[in-house]
């Protein structure tokens, strides 16, 4: 018998809904994992892995489907339209195929247990509309239907590493930012690694992709002061005025601004020159004994 195949009779005897890596559901989920942001955006779906994370998201949102190796008695713990029992080999194929380092992780699962061998498919939240129109006067027509105006906006420009993206999103949620604007070739906030690091806070944070010009237009419309995080070393390399320590920043002029936008850039090059030229450079002094995100 071919690798990854199981006879229909054998699958039925084991009570499996999915026994082969050639099952269409397996192929769809593998493509969501490996296809990148473009595929996830086209399908409007996100892959989530791990029992705990699926249960956490499921407290608020329903999954399209969940694939698990568990017995049917355990299906009730998942908030999903459909729960399917799959062979472990099929689940490992979804999670670890086409990646040598992932294959090593698959081998470690044999010793550490199978909690990660649960895969979910859920709708991706739509991009926010805060970039499309300026906030209007309070009490006007349809005021109750409009989202609240932006007060604190995080702009992420070209951040590549899932760990950094996950920490930035988690921090933005903890500090009650109004939304996230993504520009440059950022890692997808709905990448399964980012979801695991951030514990899927992307579902609670309005987001939008766009260009530097669109970001600056949003800030203008919502009267946001524009700031960019920059280290002293980066400031020396790029030239221009030095970054102002955040403790020395003057208070926002309430007559001119209603909030602020903080931009954080790529791990190696920082933010784009276009954005850097039009923002106040700010720095957060840190102890030399502690490493930063290496972003900005």
Tell me about the largest β-sheet. 7 strands, parallel
Distance between the termini: 53 Å
Strand order in the sheet with the most strands: 7-6-5-10-8-11-9
Radius of gyration based on Cα positions: 23 Å
> Based on DSSP secondary structure assignment, what is the total number of beta strands?
11
Mean pLDDT: 83
**Helix content percent band:** 25-40%
Unreliable runs: none
Describe the 3D structure:
The protein is an alpha/beta fold and 296 residues long. The chain is 32% helix and 19% strand. It is built from 11 helices and 11 strands. The protein has helices spanning 8-13, 24-34, 36-43, 51-58, 88-96, 100-112, 162-174, 192-198, 212-221, 232-238, 273-276, and strands at residues 45-49, 63-68, 80-85, 118-123, 152-157, 179-183, 207-209, 224-229, 244-245, 259-265, 280-283. The strands form 2 sheets. Strands 7-6-5-10-8-11-9 form a 7-stranded parallel beta sheet, sandwiched between helices. A 4-stranded mixed beta sheet has the order 1-4-2-3, with helices on both faces. Helix 7 links the parallel strand 5 (152-157) and strand 6 (179-183). The model has no long low-confidence stretch (mean pLDDT 83).
């Amino acid at each position: 018998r071919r690798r990854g195949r199981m006879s229909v009779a054998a699958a039925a005897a084991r009570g499996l809904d999915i026994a082969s890596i050639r099952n269409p559901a397996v192929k769809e989920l593998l493509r969501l994992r490996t296809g990148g942001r473009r595929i996830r955006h086209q399908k409007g779906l996100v892959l989530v892995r791990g029992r705990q994370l699926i249960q956490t998201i499921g407290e608020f949102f329903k999954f399209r489907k969940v694939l698990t190796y568990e017995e049917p008695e355990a299906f009730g713990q998942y908030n999903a339209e459909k729960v399917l029992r799959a062979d472990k080999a099929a689940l490992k194929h979804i999670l670890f195929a086409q990646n040598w380092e992932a294959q090593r992780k698959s081998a470690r699962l044999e010793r550490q247990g199978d909690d990660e061998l649960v895969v979910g498919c859920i709708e991706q939240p739509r991009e926010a509309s805060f970039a499309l129109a300026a906030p209007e006067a309070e009490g006007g027509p349809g005021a109750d239907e409009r989202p609240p105006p932006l007060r604190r906006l995080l702009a992420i420009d070209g951040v590549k590493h899932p760990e950094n993206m996950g920490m930035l999103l988690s921090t933005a949620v903890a500090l009650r930012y109004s939304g996230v604007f993504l520009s440059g070739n950022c890692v997808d906030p709905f990448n399964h690694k980012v979801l695991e690091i951030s514990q899927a806070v992307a579902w609670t944070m309005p987001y939008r992709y766009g260009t530097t010009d669109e970001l600056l237009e949003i800030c203008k419309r919502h009267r946001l002061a524009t700031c960019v995080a920059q280290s002293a070393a980066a400031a020396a390399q790029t030239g221009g005025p030095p970054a102002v320590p955040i403790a020395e920043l003057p208070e926002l002029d309430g007559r001119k601004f209603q909030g602020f936008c903080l931009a954080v850039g790529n791990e190696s090059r920082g933010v784009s020159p276009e954005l850097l030229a039009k923002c106040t450079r700010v720095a957060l002094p840190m102890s030399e004994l502690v490493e930063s995100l290496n972003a900005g």
